[in-house]
Amino acid sequence: MSDCYLPRLGGIEVQVADLVRVQREAGHEVSVATATRGEPLPGVHRIVAPMPFDLPVHPFGVGHLTRRITSARPDVVHVHAGAVSPFAWMGVRAAHRAGVPCVVTVHSMWDPVTRALYRLLRLAYGWERWRLVATTVSNAAAAPIRAVAGPLVPVRVVSNGLDLSGWAPPPGAPDSRSDVHVVAVGRLAPRKQPVRLLKLLLAARSQVPAHIPMRATIVGDGPARGQMERFLERHGMASWVSLPGRYTREQIAKVLESADVFVAPAPRESFGIAALEARAAGLPVVARAQSGVADFVKDGVEGLLGRTLGDLARAVARLCRDPELRVAIAAHNRTTPPTAGSWEAVLDGFDHAYTHALTLRTS
């Protein structure tokens, strides 16, 4: 069950659709319930209501989903939720009503406001006593869920699944050219704080000697683009920082081929798909130590980690100034494929979560 599903295109929608495909290929019988409008798809049941802006919410979702679960009698209900996903949590309640084991995958990082909301819902509904099994995509994302849910809800870490074969770097040693190309990829949305990325780059540039050419490419689009363009003009950065817009997967892979450093500055990044793709492409990754990226990037091995924006700026500057360190990390990443994100590990992780949920329900 998921609020959002195809034809919408976003992180959760694509991840859930890929999981459904891979599980079916592995021999599981999988059906989907969603509140997203769209064309008929095999095994996809759209429970939709006329809502403003086609919001994926149904005012009577609990009843519809309870009847659906009761008639289908699945072995387990797997609910996919973002930070706040009303339809998904209606699915959790419906599974509890129907007496069917339930696994809840939380795809986002719970911030303080979200944690407060779920504490209130716990008081109102007592959901921590529903014998749920929770999964999330990184250790960083698991910590706030455990703090809210308490010991009655086991929280397992199962990473996002990715096919990383298309991100492998071209053969040969990493380039040690004198100019340094820094790349970031992501939606230019205010909640992602993309202007802070520009401040990071500006601070890093001030710490790099003028004789070392430095340029940056920020791939993506969104409502914060205008604000970013004004910042670039105001600080004289437009000559070395480009905002080319949204790119296809193939175009991003081509940009990564020309890159030397990848930056993932978001502190509440629950997993970091773009960072893992860059890691698979052989790039040193600079990211927050408190984000999900730290699950597959160790400081000084696959990249450099920091806790503050200043830490990240110093890390980018260090990689720009030190070609030997940059090339050493790139060489490691090129010769050591990441273990995170493999679909084999993801399927195994969810199979264990389903078994755990079945055990809780029958105990």
TrEMBL record:
The family database entries (Gene3D superfamilies) matched by this protein are listed as: Glycogen Phosphorylase B
Question: Known InterPro entries for this protein?
Answer: Glyco_trans_1 (IPR001296), Glyco_trans_4-like_N (IPR028098), Glycosyltransferase_grp1 (IPR050194)
Q: Which Pfam families match?
A: Glyco_transf_4 (PF13439), Glycos_transf_1 (PF00534)
GO molecular function (one): glycosyltransferase activity
Q: What class of enzyme is it?
A: transferase
Alphabetically sorted, this entry's keywords are: Glycosyltransferase, Transferase
What SUPFAM superfamilies has UniProt attached to this entry? Answer: UDP-Glycosyltransferase/glycogen phosphorylase
The UniProt record lists the Glycosyltransferase subfamily 4-like N-terminal domain at: 10-165
> Where on the tree of life does the source sit, at the highest rank?
Bacteria
* Entry keyword annotation includes Transcription regulation: no
On whether Acetylation is a keyword of this UniProt record, the answer is no
Glycosyl transferase family domain: from which residue to which, for each copy? 182-332
Q: Which PANTHER family match?
A: SULFOQUINOVOSYL TRANSFERASE SQD2
Instruction: Name the chain's protein.
Output: Glycosyltransferase
The organism encoding this protein is Nonomuraea salmonea
Q: Which classification does the entry list for the species? A: Bacteria, Bacillati, Actinomycetota, Actinomycetes, Streptosporangiales
